[in-house]
Structures are given as structure tokens and as C-alpha cells.
Amino acid sequence: MIIAPSLLASDHAHFGQGAARAAKAGAEWLHLDIMDGHFVPNISFGPQVVKAVRPYAKNIFFDVHLMCSKPEILLEPFAKAGADQMITHVELGERVESIIWKIRQLGKKVGLAVNPPTAIAEVEPFLDKIDLLLVMTVNPGFGGQEFIHECLPKIQQAEAWRREKKLKYRISVDGGINNDTAAECARAGADTFVAGTSLFGQRNLKAAVAKLRKIVHANDPALADLNIRRGQI
Ligand code: DX5
Ligand code: ZN
Fold it and tell me: Pocket of ligand 1, candidates 44, 138, 177: which has the most ligand atoms within 8 Å of its Cβ, to mutate?
């Protein structure tokens, strides 16, 4: 399981400190939301900010979520700025394949995101080419929104495909993730949890990460199977 605090929910005047807090709190990844004011109705930050933040959290994995209409022009700048993975959106249609290829060429991990109104079937042709599938559980653009429960069957489908096709992509969820909704997502098959408001909103980030981790672990379907077999449930 991976916990990825979303920097968008940290103090925008002190992104470096926010990244350092996430790393010290024991999170494996830092999620960085890139919004271009076109693909989504908001603007966040660009490669120069990511580059400036990188030294504050040297060992954490930078999970860069590109909510951008033209990711092609941003891939190299973000790769140079310190991204470990770049996530593009399936809503970009016929350009998705070449964007995935470009991210790979840059030597970075590849993620593919799907928005709530988009059918999960849209991602199926790309599943053997990606490292992570990001199931958006809010309409992207803003932190602090309410989790959309109708997205849960998409997680189940992503998990079923992964099993049937013997693939290894991670299944990430992003938007409105807190201790309750993370448990629901874990039961549906998610293994990577992006959380902004519910983590950075806590004074003790380390304790909040540990609690989220414990809850996800307790709701891991593999563990539930094991407990059923052991007669514990
Ligand atoms: C939404 C972003 C999310 C956001 C999540 O557009 O993609 O990553 O930071 O924030 P919370 O956890 O506050 O919903
Ligand atoms: Zn995001």
C-alpha cells in the first residue's frame, strides 16, 4: 500500500516545508497536482515549483498528476524537475498512446487517470502499458471536495482486469479520500491512496498517515480472505 499526501492541500506559501512534512510523516509518495486552467478550471503550479520543492524531500517518490490539455509540452520539464511518475488523462483520447510512450522514453513511471464521468472501458486498451491507474473520485480541479461513491465500481473493474489479465499496475484513488472513504476504496481493490485535505489538515501528519495506513490494511481484501480461511471472520 502507498499513501500519497497531496501537496495541493499544504500551505502554498511553504511548499518545501509541506513536502518535508510528508516525507517525515512516513508517506512513500508525494502527489503533485498540476492544473493548467484549461483541462480543469483552476491553476496550481509548474515545473519550476516542483524543482524548487525537490531538495526538501529528496527520497520521496514524486507522483505528478498532469491535469493539462497539452501534457506533451510539459513532460520533459517535469522529468527534469524531479518527477518519478507522470499521470496523464484518458480524456485526451487518441493522443494518450503517444503521451504514454513519451513518458516511458524519459525513463519515468507512467500513470493514466480517468475522470468520474468517463467510462472505465476507455482505459482498457492501455492497461498493459501503464504502471498506475488513477481512478478520480472527484471531478478534478479543486481539493476538499466530497468523494463520489459512484466511482467505486470502477475500482472493482480495474481490480478484476488486473487479476484476469495478470497485470501489475497500481490502482490509485484521488479526491475526497479520508479514513472512511479509503476503507471503501481498499475493499474495492485500491492500493494507492492520494489524500490532501484529510492529511494536511491534521496537526500531526505522521499520526494521520499511520492511522490511514492502519485502516487501509484492515480493509485489504487479501487480508479479509486470509482471515475467512483462518475462521477469524
Ligand atoms: C483534485 C486533485 C487531487 C486533490 C485531492 O483535482 O487531483 O489530488 O489534491 O484533494 P482532497 O484529498 O482534498 O480531495
Ligand atoms: Zn491529483
Answer: 138
